[in-house]
Amino acid sequence: MPPGTGLSALLAGHVTSGVVRPLPGVRDLHVLCAGPPPPNPQELLLRPAFAALLHELARRYAHVIVDTSAGVDGADAALVAARAGATVVVGRRGASRLRRMRLLIDRLGTAGARIAGVVMNER
Question: Which one, out of 21, 69, 74, 110, has a CA that is 20 to 30 A from the CA of 46?
Fold first, then answer.
C-alpha cells in the first residue's frame, strides 16, 4: 500500500478514498491495511466514522474480517470487537493459556462483543 494510507489515515481524515484495494493474484479479496500507527488509536476507533466504515464495508462485501493486535495486550481489540458483527478469538497452541483466554473472552463480552467461537492455531 502507498505510505500514509490505511485505516488510521482514513479515520483521521488524511485520506478519503482508495484505501480498500484488491489483493493481486487473489480473486475477490480486498484489503484495508492498518496504516501508520496513530498517536491515539483508541480515539480513532471510538469515532462514529469507524462504525460507519464497518457498516459500509458489510454492505459492499460478503464477508469483512478485521484482524487486531492481541486482545490481551490492550483495549484496541475490545473496541473493534464491540463494533464487529461477531468475534472469533484466536489462540496459539502451546503458548496461549486457558485462564488468559477466558479472561479475554470475558473482557470482550463486557465490551459488548458477540463471541462466535475460539480457534487454536499452530503458530
Answer: 21
3-class SS of residue 77: helix
pTM of the prediction? 0.80
C-alpha cell of 21? 484495494
CB proximity list for 12: less than 8 A, separation 6 or greater: 38, 44
Residue length, the chain? 123
Alpha-carbon span 65 to 109, nearest angstrom:
19
Residues 6+ apart with CB under 8 A from 84: 54, 66, 113
33 pairs with which residues across the strands? Answer: none
| HEC sequence for 13-60 | CCCCCCCCEECCCCCCCEECCCCCCCCCHHHHHHCHHHHHHHHHHHHH
pLDDT bin (cut points 50, 70, 90) of residue 26 is very high
